[in-house]
Amino acid sequence: MKCHLRNLLTYLVLTIALALLSPSAAAEAKKLIPMGESIGIQLELPFIYVAHDVLLPNGQWLKKGDIIKEVNGKPIQSIEMLKESMTDSEISLTIKQSTNHTRTITLTNDQANNILPFLKDETDGIGTLTFIDPESKEYGALGHQIIDGVLNKPPEFTDGSIFLASIEQIKKSSPGNPGYKISVINHDDIRLGNISSNDIYGIFGNWELDVKEIMRKPIEIMHDDEIQLGKAELLTAIEGSKVESFTIEIVKIEDNYLQFEITDQNLLSKTGGILQGMSGSPILQNGKFVGAVTHMFVEQPARGAAITLSEMLKKKPN
After folding, report:
1. Strand-pair category, 179-185 with 275-276
2. CATH number at residue 40
3. DSSP assignment letter at 221
4. Largest CB tally within 10 Å, which of 65, 80, 130, 263?
5. What is the DSSP letter of 174?
6. pLDDT digits (tens, 9 = 90+) for 140-194
């Protein structure tokens, strides 16, 4: 009887231990596909804003960051809605200024047409795809949040899309002057995925193409305590849509962040260092997935910062 009871208790203890360990074990076994493709990002906003200062015929100004709230007294959310409302000889626009004051202006149809090129109802950008989860078909990119350059804050959005971008030209980085990728994005091309979240560690969403067509294989995520100073590799695209591997040196590890220097002479000769648009580029070490590029050091463009993948995944939507 005592032996039976002892065996039962041992079984229960083992069962409880396995249950407690299973989430960690699952995390250890987690594998993601490292990407590196340059992507175009499009966020559709629930409002229209003024992208540049515009002088109106009556001497008043539409200021950058102003938001058009109503047309002829009716709420408006898109430029298409604005165009559809331009049927009368005059239209009335209710404007919310950056100071939160509102005012109303009246324009003729011709005047309204003239300001259309200065209005936007979406935020666009360029970044790098970090990973795809082959099981959930979710992706992560950028490694940092999208901040609209006019609104100076993360924009509200109703829908979002990512598209493949092709690098046509490089503006090289130099000390004090960040370089950038000059890309072509075809919004009429196949959408790669939606955008469900724009968080501090990047954008996340659902990958909408066949994961089996991706040639790279999933690899294990490196735990933060496994990351070592020394040689690693960076995956990114600098010509067309081809992803290449470049050598880097991890020079500092602090909590969930790391600093690195580009040591690959081929990359340095072509880009001068880190470029705007490289954010999200995967970093690998010893065959494992370490993290994603987030920032460059403006005065030292060969030097960059990255977030560990385990930290990036903490903000991934459930």
Report:
1. parallel
2. 2.40.10.120
3. B
4. 130
5. B
6. 999 999 999 888 899 999 999 999 999 999 999 999 999 999 888 866 678 999 9
Residues marked active site are found at 144, 264, 279
pLDDT tens, residue by residue, 105-118: 988 888 888 999 99
> What is the Cα–Cα distance from 31 to 217, expressed in whole angstroms?
9
Residues 150, 265 within the same domain: yes
Secondary structure of 53-90 as H, E, C letters? CEECCCCCEECCCCEEEEECCEECCCHHHHHHHCCCCE
- pLDDT digits 0-9 by tens, 7-24: 433 333 333 232 333 333
Shared-domain flag, residues 137 and 252: yes
Residues 105 and 130 in one domain: no
Judging by beta carbons within 10 Å of its beta carbon (0-12, 13-18, 19+), is residue 209 exposed, middle or buried? middle
**Domain coverage including residue 309:** 32-44+125-315
State the Cα–Cα distance between residues 144 and 129, nearest whole angstrom. 12
